[in-house]
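Sanity check. The docking grid for MD3 depends on where the pocket ends up, so I'm generating a full predicted complex first rather than guessing from homology. Inputs follow.
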Amino acid sequence: MTLDLFGHDATGDTPNPPHADALGPGAFVLRGFARSRLETLQADIDGVVAQAPLRHWLTPGGKRMSVAMTNCGEVGWISDRVGYRYGTHDPLSKQRWPAMPASFAELAHNAAEATGYRDFRPDACLINRYTLDARLTLHQDRDERELGAPIVSVSLGLPAIFLWGGLQRGDRTRRVRLEPGDVVVWGGPSRLAYHGIASVEGSFDAQAVRYNLTFRQAR
Ligand code: MD3
Ligand code: FE
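Predicted complex below; grid placement will be based on this.
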């Protein structure tokens, strides 16, 4: 596949509201979109984590991921020696993943709508927690059945440098600073772009961490 991801007018019908910065065709940063809701979101994260603790998955290759993860919603993203997949149950508790808090579902829906994606109803929310030494290497999100739906991500806590690549692993990457309250919507031709987190900004004596919520229509 050789789509010209960041060429001019790649789709022609890309939604483009005035208050969003386009990162690429179909991908938008909504700066501060969740800022007024950060306290509620954090309280709801804490509620999910109390039921389904953050943990470091193993990659299929056997490496412990530096990002700690948990899930809420109908299905959750899981990684172990078997591979990457979505599952209805938390492998630690053997219970279903906690329900998606209304504050999460509403925010994800509203952000998608603000960028022209109608009727976004995510069934999965991955909660990522980054300490200062955590990284997420360049990857594609391709474990979802519904690749036509966008992904919505919400940043909380410490700022981070997001890596935004192209459709091929070797394509050059841009660095985008994501701050607490920033919401990003990735769809259309940008849905399968390579991306990652290069670094989290903060001082080592502080206890602070970064959280990211990633909303997907996974199945
Ligand atoms: C661009 N998380 O969990 S969210 C992930 O900040 C993930 O925790 C990062 O990448 C984080 O898979 C980045 C932003 C994101 C999510 C999905 C994308 C960007 C994306 C899918 C396609 C293109
Ligand atoms: Fe990703």
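Relevant for the grid: DSSP finds two helices and 13 strands in the chain.
Also worth noting: The first strand starts at residue 21 and ends at 24.
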